[in-house]
Amino acid sequence: MKLQFPRKHMLGLAIALVVSGPALAQGNEAIINQTSASAVEGNLAEVSQSGEINLAVVDQNGALNNASVTQDGVWLESYNFVSGNDNQTRIEQAADWHIAYVDISGDDNTATVAQDGFYNTAEVMVAGNTNDAVVLQAGDVNEAMISLNGNMNLAEIEQSGNGNWANAGFTGNDNSLFSVQQGDNNEAGMFNLAGNRNSFESEQFGNANVGGVVGLNGDNNSFYVLQEGDANVFIAFDVAGNDNLVDVMQRGNANEFILDPLSGDQNLVLVEQRGDANSVTAPIGLTGNDNQVDVLQRGNGNSTVFATAGDGHNVEVRQIGDNNTSEMVLAGADNRGSIYSRGDNNLAAVGLFGLANTADVRQFGDDNFALVDVQGDSNDLYVDQSGNANEVLLTSETAVDNTVVSIEQNGDINLVDMLVAGNANSIDILQNGSGNWVAGDNGYFAVSGNNGMLAVTQQGNDNLVLGSQAGEGNMMSITQVGDFNTAIVSQN
Known about the structure:
The chain contains 1 helix and 39 strands. By secondary structure, it is mainly β.
């Protein structure tokens, strides 16, 4: 599509020169219009400019066209328009205050923009087949925008400097973006992808970098993001498809991973964070079936929130550090969630909503707290705490059946609070340590239902059991070996 008037810049109305003549008081202007009627011959346009306030406009329409613009100086603008077959466009700008704009529509087109200096900006729009767009920027306030609409498109952006921004919008098949950013306040993203086997690779080294994907519908797509620096963020919004891969590694300070949501089947999400105050937030993380999530956090103040809807998910979170918090919700059937905490002040919360789900919570450290909420049948829960001042809160807001719970505490002031209702549930609690309790919110635990089993084994000091089991055909076993143990229980 031929664009008559692109964005207006401070440097003047560049495209208006094509129809209205010179508008600048000084500087050089080169305006070239080429058309080829032959299918075997192409036009060639080369423009070389130096100095101040230079403008180059190349408009080619035909077959096998080739255009190259080289500008060196201050206050430079280059506009290239291509519509046809087998076109190639290359723009090289050096020094200060450059603007480059390319509009391509056709087959096998290639556009390359190289900018060096201050306040560079580049915009490339491609619609067609087998297109390739590359933007290289070095300087300060650089900006690159690429919009590809077609098949087998590739966009590659490399930025070094301050305040850079890279943006690629895709609509088509087999699109790829490779973005390398080094500097401050850099951002890289892909928007509105449709198709299969799309690839997003972004490497960011610096401060306040952001790399993200917004809007993707397709299969076998891959996201690779490596961030090293301060306050880096990865964002993935509205990603839909099957067999997609999200692989994000963050090293630095205040990094954050956001996934909201990823819908489809057999997707793989890998997140590893090392640093301070890292966070993984996915409140509607996965919707679909048979998805795999692997999160590893090392550092200070890390937090994880992950929710799934569907069947056959496997979500695994490992936290090593201080002040880590992990929350997980599994909704559906045959899902598995695991949380491993090793460190200080960790909190693990798991919600099971559905059938035949499995939750595994292990904490090794100080001041850990585990909260497990079950709403569904035939779920398996395992909690293992080793450390100081740990607490387990087990609740079921609705009646649940055939649930198996195993809780083991080894440490100091551990506590188990229970409020569970349903039939044929099995609860096994083992406490090894000092000052352990098995009780409830009002001082007594409450387990209700029929044909249930409750077993409590305490080995240690100052242990206490207070609670009741209501229903028919239930069995309760209390074993206390140690000092100052007290058991006050009732069945009715």
